[in-house]
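User: Once you have settled down, look closely at the record that follows, taking as long as you need, and be ready to discuss the fold:
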Amino acid sequence: MARHAMTDSPIGTLTIVGDEDGAVVAVYMAEHRNMPDPRTFGDRDDTTFPDARRQLAEYFAGRRKAFDLPLRPVGNDFQRRVWDALTRIPYGETRTYGQLATALGLSGQAVRAVGTANGKNPLSIIVPCHRVIGADGHLRGYAGGLERKRFLLDLERPDGAALF
């Protein structure tokens, strides 16, 4: 049975959804696009997922660059391949949708499919879909909104200067 916890962050309240084994299946922001019906999240218990809450707090405090959590996102094989590739984009760096497609060994026609899979990533922040930008260097869609994407990218800037 699924359960969830709510935790505060600089980008608003985050909802951490996990399964009965304690694996994190999703992290959603307020007004998150593609968020399923919250009634599917199971019981709320804000004491659950202490490692996820701690690691997210460390990330926002600038003390964590990678997450070490049991993850179990729900998606098809292609989506999971894309999400896995996202985890290999280093902290503080960005990739374009085309670069992500190439890293997956896909042709240029796959850019839209990669973008769609990226947009359905249920593990925002932990699986860093915010690190993917348009080919022209501009910010493109983000399930939590472009202001949050900008905040996350600026947070990861090595010199602390705003990039976007």
Residues 3-60 form a domain with the Double Stranded RNA Binding Domain fold (CATH 3.30.160). Residues 58 and 64 are 5 Å apart (CA to CA).
